[in-house]
Amino acid sequence: MTANADAAAAGVEALDCLTPFGDAAATAAALLAGRRALAPHPVLGPDGGDPVPLALIGGAMDEPVTPRWLAPARELARRIPAGDWGSAREPVVVTSSNFGVGAMHAFTRDRDARHLAHGTPFAAAARLGRELGWGEHVHVLSHACVTAHLGLALAGRLLHRGFANRVLVFSFDFVSPFVAAGFHSLKILNAAMPAPFAARDSGSIGLGDGAAFAVLAAAPAPLRLEAAALHNEMHHFTSNRPDGAGFTACAVAMAAAARGRRVWIKGHGTGTLEAGRLEAEAWRQAFPDAPLVSWKGSLGHTLGSCGLVELAVAAAALRAGRIPGTVGGEAPSFTANVALGPLAAAGFDAAVLSANAFGGAHASFILAHD
Amino acid sequence: MTERFIHEVRVERPPAAEDAAAARARLAERFPRAALRRMTHLGMLVGAAADGIALGPDDAIVYATSYGETRALEDYLASFPAASPLLFQTSIHPSAVQQVLIGRQQPVARLWPLAGRARLVEQALLAAVLEPAPRVWLTGGEERGTWLLERGVASDRAFAFGLLLAADGDGAAGRLAARPASGPDEPGPTLASFADALAARAPLAWTGGGARWSVEWR
Q1: How close does chain A come to B67, measured CA to CA in Å?
Q2: Which residue, A282, A266, A269, A257, is CA-closest to A328?
Q3: A6 with A218: CB under 8 angstroms?
Q4: What is the ipTM of this complex?
């Protein structure tokens, strides 16, 4: 199986993110310094439970009536360039895995009906839109951990088919007991810190808060998103085909699109064993000379927002001239292409950014730069 | 103008009182027994709408729902503090489509799960006409909630629909078109009224998002 990649490029007019370290530049600097945002927190937040690695903006997984993602989203939104956002010609694409679902759990705890006002994806997006003055043309996408990649791909299509002049892609995922307990119940979020792509006895992920935005336009720009490739295995809800064919589908498409370029790869790399092994091997085969890194050992997995958060960090790293390695990784890695230490950006002219999700969903694109 | 031709139309409108158990009995022959046990009401309705529709690995799916897996969400919340792994994964968007395709072991190129409400139908049609896949299965629906419905955050009816879209018009039952238009936005169909219009083969037309949208039948 090979995924077909969208051919048209989208220029990046503006891009930034918010993580527990701060904006994209601060996050890239922290990763280069090898710092972890992840720290042990009770899986049920105020209700306790096993300690699990979480990277939280604000330092606690509380559930107030005013959702805790709203203030950070407002802070991030101050950096969005002015525009008629949410109009027909400048639509918004909101991408998330969680949206406001933590509010549903909060309601079951304290029975305050005000939580439910932003519990569904469309209600959370509408709340955000009211706060930020967006119009009605807000696309709401939710496809677990490849959602931001889908949002960027949809934006590219809107631009190149003449349905938009500019597109704002906005993504936010904040950890709640709802989602932390869910991953804990699946036994992939446990007490151990994640070590992406490390060949060790047991795997574990961490979860992180994150928000990000990108303003895309059809016109060329120094930073460009190219060759969005998507594939859905539909083999199992929470595991991949054992032959790695789903990973290979996107990796082969990226190799064809990146031919002749010197690339590095920002993988998904959550810290799970089987998916990590399949992913590392697929990239090694498709790009034998390209280093592979993951940043989820520090930032945690920002779920549906990871594609956009990590894109903003990648862009900031390129500006800084150094690309963070696999923070939290450890030798031996599954494959020799895994880079544990930082890389000099000068050696490359493009990056491949990738994410995977439940259902065996795979998404990748090329970040090209002058 | 951008257009796609409608080659199949399916609408599932179960009795108002039907719940997942009743749907499981009614639709038992449509799904593998092992998969059926774990399917949600919405998953069964979406799957019933797709019954007999053969999709290939190069095809794409657009999926629209505002509330998604309401009952799995309600039951998952009830499982706390011992959170249920099965209900967690089932509650995650876009579980209904994944239940169906994983049951079939059917890979697809792209899946566009839309979860808005205002202009949701228009956005789903837009995602479908932007899709270069040879065939696009445009599907969607809702299931009826219980306590979330009482709180106004769930659908009050269960339904599902599916449209098989292709660029080729030979033998088509209808046509979906988007022409550039500069007029002000008009209200478009809701997800439920769209399903009803499909069931009645009723034509639809409205302006929104810089386009004049039409669904016409032959």
Answers
A1: 7
A2: A269
A3: no
A4: 0.98
